[in-house]
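Hi everyone, sorry if this is the wrong subforum. Our group has a chain we'd like a structural model of before ordering constructs, and none of us has done structure prediction before. Sequence below.
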Amino acid sequence: MNRLLRVMRKNRMFRYNSLILFMILVIGITVAGFSYLSVSKKAQEKTTLQTLDTLLLIIKKDIADSENIEESLRDITDNYKNEYDIYIYFTDEQGNMTGDIKTASSKKIIKKIIEQEGKKGYRSNNKYVAGAYIPELDKYIIVENLGIDMRYICVRIFEYGLFMLLMMLILIVLFNYVVHIEEYNSYTKKIAVDKLVGIPDDASLIEKINDYLAGPDSKKKGAAMFVLDIDCLSEVENVLGKDKADQVLNDIAHIIMNTFRANDIVGRYDNDKFMAFCPGLLSSDTCILKASLLNEAARVSYSDSIGNSVNISLSIGIAVYPKHGDTYDELYKNAERALNFVRESSGDGYKLYSDLPNL
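Answer:
Right subforum, don't worry. Here is the predicted structure as tokens:
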């Protein structure tokens, strides 16, 4: 499971899907913002026209007492102003206002209302203005609604954004989990596992490596092949027995698996050899560092109950793709040559193919 999680963190698809879902989140919040603004504008228009109709009904009902109409409407207009940010006033055809409200735009407003030709209102920036002519009073009643609350809209968009963000995070995790579970299951089904040490055998190694080398960008990305041989494994079997030799193989397999990355191709071939193929690894310094760590971790002494002991170590040959070969066979041959050089030099070390003498 830990290996699967490491693959997920390193996989490009996880980053690409996350980016796509983040873009969907941004688009969703933007659409929500415009939707809330549109709904608020429609509500503002509806409230304004309803207010105007209500006032006209009141005026018609009290038309007999026309001298006191403005006074009787004062309480109503104050209520609208305080609660809904709606301003109500009377004006003549020239825009000359009566009442307490004074505005420099009244002449433009009355001109626009007159030009409406039967329509009661119009929009002006963030406000909606409606008006009607009252023949009995020879005046226009004007209703200005400034009630689009941008703070309310921003809060609603923020709440919607948090909800969308939570949903996107859940979708990202679920989607990528499902994708990588399927990839992992597909990967494990294709791999034949060495029953003794629990890692892929040589047939699976070759297949996976050739799949990578056949990729369109493989040469640009590069790779490194490590061929590892356990020094003195045959001596362990002869002196300490086969069970102890099997234990050595298992221990070395765990050391190798823990040293390489989750997406590296690691397996066993021949009897006492292992191979690791690292896609994207081009740096010779990094190759040397990994080899040094492997050499240090593999220096272990094994003994039995009667005092016999054998020291083991690793010999490592390294070939870099495509610098040291374009095919699996070329890489393996050159990594094996580097390995043989180490073994002939008493083992317990590493060598890059390019560092071999007399090349």
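For your construct planning: The chain has two domains: 1-190, 192-355. Confidence is low (pLDDT under 50) at residues 1-10, 100-104.
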